[in-house]
Specification:
It is a single chain. This protein has 246 residues and is α/β, with parallel strands linked by helices. The protein has 2 domains: 121 residues, 3-Layer(aba) Sandwich (Rossmann fold), CATH 3.40.50.2300; 92 residues, Arc Repressor Mutant, subunit A. The chain has 8 helices and 12 strands. The strands form 3 sheets. A 5-stranded parallel beta sheet has the order 2-1-3-4-5, with helices on both faces. A 4-stranded antiparallel beta sheet has the order 6-7-8-9, with no helix packed on it. Strands 10-12-11 form a 3-stranded antiparallel beta sheet. Helix 2 runs parallel beside helix 3, helix 6 crosses helix 7 and helix 6 packs across helix 8.
Amino acid sequence: MARILVVEDEQDLRQVLEYNLRDAGHEVVAFGEGRKAMAWAADETPDLVLLDLMLPDVSGLEVCRALKAGKNTRDVPVVMVTARGEEIDRVVGFELGADDYVVKPFSVRELLLRLRAVLRRGAVPAEDVAPTSKPIRFGRLTIDVGAHRVWVDGQELSLTPLEFKLVCTLYERRNRVQSRGALLDDVWGASQENMTRTIDTHVKRLREKLGEVGAYIETVRGVGYRFVGSPPGTPGGGGTTEEESR
């Protein structure tokens, strides 16, 4: 069971969402205005936010931006629900940190499955990395899969569940190119072609958090990404001429 915050100004739809989410076993708190939802989320920290893009007082994009900037809400997954399905809206949403995007009208069954997938991403470590009692040390990077923690040069990073799963997946498959489609399927649990842009957005954000260690993740032009086989500065470490770091 998860505590889900619903932000939807259409009363009929809000009630439908509340009913079906509670019927699925979730705790639901619902608001019709963005500012009230943001204030509640900052104090209560939900497990997931179901967010309408078009709200009467403030844009859903602004709500998403505030949630991702908030100390208590930056790691909370956000699923946007809107009647606007243009690619630019999806791209902006993903760049702000949204985890999924559902266009109205939608099937309640499909929505529940998507929410389950998003919640599962945040709750389960990368499947390809077996939990271990000892942290993984790779150059300047340290990953503790069991504790869900990452350090660079001894300084702990604040990664979202998706970012953690992404770095674990890339590390486990180091020195092997991972296409955007493969990462979308294995990390996001999705396969929509129009979502591949979100891979680039999340890799860019992950690299920024990793700082200089972000160079461990190489871009293979026209294909996808690859985690280096050995840390730069060690024999055989570093990239080759076919890659470029973004």
